[in-house]
Amino acid sequence: MPLFLIERNFAERLEITPEIAGAVGAVNVDCGVNWSHSYQTADGKKTYCLYDSPNAESIQNAATTAGIPADVIVEVSELRPENYVEG
Length: 87
Description:
By secondary structure, the chain is of the alpha+beta class. It has helices spanning 18-31, 56-66, and strands at residues 3-9, 34-40, 46-52, 72-76. The protein has a 4-stranded antiparallel beta sheet, covered by helices on one side.
């Protein structure tokens, strides 16, 4: 399944609770996308999320349904240093 990086911008610092994560997870299942993990900026107002999804439209649909931003959605591929370093 294709891999996507999503940039999300929030007006306030994002505080994720188990309830919020569960609600987002339920929407993701319904929309056919899988949240792998995220990185949050130090000020808490921006996240970069890695998702498996059949397409960008499914991610946008999940974000809209969950009421969270998906400001930039980019299809990516994974590059791991150990695949390129000898020894």
